[in-house]
Design goal:
eight-stranded mixed β-sheet; binds magnesium ion; binds adenosine-5'-diphosphate; alpha/beta; four-stranded antiparallel β-sheet
């Protein structure tokens, strides 16, 4: 039996962002610092971690909006970092993005028809204005808006409706992978589940794969097939969602779960509150980047950088102190 190749495969990806200090010096932010993962067609891969850990930079690198410093990205077997010209345009049709802030990502001067239809024109997928408007209208209805909303402007809609416009804009190009960068983080809790349900329906209808980014594990529980937990540019734990959430191994994953709102009160004694702030990614700590805040750290954690090591069924952790004995390093 052959296993289908992954739709997206990211290998040891590094994205270092150049910065200037106020004193005229130069440095780099190690925003993405050696990340590997795979997403299969039609599946949802969740990426979770505190603000500033590199999630959006990873998304922008996969989208070819920010240059990678090293590593590989493969989409359907092709080398994404080598794409140029028409092949890069076609990749940018197949991989779309939905942003966190629908208000900020929709041009207030354009009508919804122009916002959603613009990419159809750029990609030559609509031969006339009426063909474009017909495609936009049917996509607006599909995301729960009205066909004649295409004549209105973004400010005439609520936050949840604006996110539906952002989703329509991504889907009208019939992508295979949609990167959702905190798509519900700016929305009221009551609206969040409506948007998640819509994304789930659209996934089934169009066979989409999602890279779903959030800073809170609770929204991922029912939505993602697999999750990866990111800390300071690295994945510290990954695996099937239920395994990671029910049997978290890394002390950082446990802390994130404790911070999620749905912890029952009888588990409060097990709450782990992280001391301090995440370290500065311009000068990450040596060894395990988490050791400065870790309740389980031993002397070697400040020296040896742990690799993500698999154990069991697809569950992997970068923590030699807590890893089950069967864990083997995957380099
Ligand atoms: N354009 C940029 N130039 C320099 N540093 C940046 C830039 N964008 C983000 N950063 C820094 O890179 C790190 C990762 O940021 P980001 O990818 O936005 O994280 P997240 O999406 O997880 O909140 C942060 O330390 C952030 O300050
Ligand atoms: Mg972000």
């Amino acid at each position: 039996m052959s296993v289908a190749p992954p739709l997206l495969a990211v290998r040891n990806l590094r994205t270092l962002l150049p910065i200037r200090s106020p004193f005229g010096g130069r440095g780099v932010v190690r925003a993405v610092d050696g990340v590997s993962f795979e997403i299969r067609a039609g599946r949802t891969f969740g990426l979770v971690g505190e603000s500033g850990c590199g999630k959006s930079t990873l998304a922008r690198t996969v989208l070819r909006l920010t240059p990678a410093s090293s590593g590989r990205i493969q989409f359907d077997g092709t080398d994404v970092l080598a794409l140029r010209g028409g092949a890069l345009r076609e990749y940018r049709r197949q991989v779309q993005v939905v942003f966190q802030d629908p208000a900020g990502s929709l041009n207030p001067r354009l009508t919804v028809g122009e916002i959603v239809g613009e990419a159809l024109s750029i990609h030559g997928l609509a031969r006339s204005r009426s063909e474009r408007d017909a495609a936009v209208a049917s996509m607006l209805e599909r995301v729960g808006l009205a066909a004649d909303d295409l004549r209105r402007f973004p400010h005439e809609f609520s936050g949840g409706q604006r996110q539906r416009i952002g989703i329509a804009r991504a889907l009208v190009l019939r992508p295979r992978l949609v990167i959702c960068d905190e798509p519900v983080s700016a929305l009221d809790v009551s609206i969040q589940s409506q948007i998640l349900n819509l994304l789930a329906d659209l996934q089934a209808e169009f066979g989409l794969a999602y890279l779903f980014i959030a800073h809170n594990l609770s929204v991922m529980r029912h939505f993602c097939d697999e999750i990866a937990v990111m800390y300071l540019g690295r994945i510290v734990e990954s695996g099937p969602t239920a395994d990671v959430i029910e049997h978290p191994i890394h002390p950082y994953t446990r802390a994130l779960l404790s911070a999620a709102p749905r912890v029952p009160s009888r588990d409060r004694a097990a709450l782990r509150i992280l001391p301090g702030e995440p370290p500065n990614p311009i000068a990450p700590p040596p060894g395990c980047a988490f050791h400065t805040r870790c309740p389980d750290a031993i002397a070697s954690c400040a020296v040896v950088r742990p690799e993500l090591a698999p154990f069991g069924d697809g569950h992997a952790v970068a923590c030699p102190v807590n890893a089950p004995a069967s864990a083997e390093e995957i380099g």
